[in-house]
């Protein structure tokens, strides 16, 4: 399980963690707390190539439905199938059991262009 300071972030509140040549993608603790109780997750299947900003899937809570976006251009190589039966894992452990997908980025340095933890924390402070 990554620590927040090991991740990169998007303005749409996805976290990204480098795991070898793959990137693990999830939603931040801030995002899951804003959504409230998560009841359903629908993600793009493995094998899809997405561009940064493409919809990766949706997360439905008792309050709203939120889109999740691909943080980088790359191929979805694994989807967290456990979320089908236990979508609440995103609320309980957003940076662990609640991860969404693993992607193979088209560019090895795509990760570096995303916000680091300190920049994301400043972004959250300025947005409130």
Helix/strand layout:
Elements: E1 8-9, E2 14-19, E3 22-27, H1 29-35, E4 38-43, E5 49-50, E6 55-61, E7 65-69, E8 74-79, H2 82-85, H3 89-92, E9 101-105, H4 117-127
Can you tell me about this structure?
This protein is of the alpha+beta class. Helices cover 20% and strands 35% of the residues. It is built from four helices and nine strands. The strands form two sheets. A six-stranded antiparallel beta sheet has the order 1-2-3-9-8-5. Strands 4-6-7 form a three-stranded antiparallel beta sheet.
Quick rundown:
With 128 residues, this protein is an alpha+beta fold.
Q: Name the CATH superfamily classification.
A: RNA polymerase II/Efflux pump adaptor protein, barrel-sandwich hybrid domain
Terminal-residue CA separation:
28 Å
Second-tier CATH architecture? Beta Barrel
Number of domains: 1
Number of strands: 9
Largest sheet: 6 strands, antiparallel
Query: Which whole number gives the mean pLDDT?
Result: 95
The dominant shape is globular
CATH topology heading: OB fold (Dihydrolipoamide Acetyltransferase, E2P)
Q: Please estimate the helix content.
A: 10-25%
């Amino acid at each position: 399980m990554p620590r927040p300071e090991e991740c990169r972030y998007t303005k749409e509140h996805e976290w990204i963690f480098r795991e070898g040549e793959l990137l693990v993608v999830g939603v931040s603790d801030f995002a899951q707390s804003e959504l409230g109780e998560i009841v359903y997750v629908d993600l793009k299947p493995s094998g899809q190539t997405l561009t940064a900003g493409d919809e990766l899937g949706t997360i439905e809570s008792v309050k709203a439905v939120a889109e999740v976006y691909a943080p980088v251009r790359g191929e979805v190589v694994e989807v967290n199938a456990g979320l089908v039966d236990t979508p609440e894992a995103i609320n309980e452990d957003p940076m662990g059991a609640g991860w969404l997908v693993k992607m193979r980025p088209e560019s090895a340095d795509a990760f570096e262009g995303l916000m680091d933890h300190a920049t994301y924390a400043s972004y959250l402070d300025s947005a409130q």
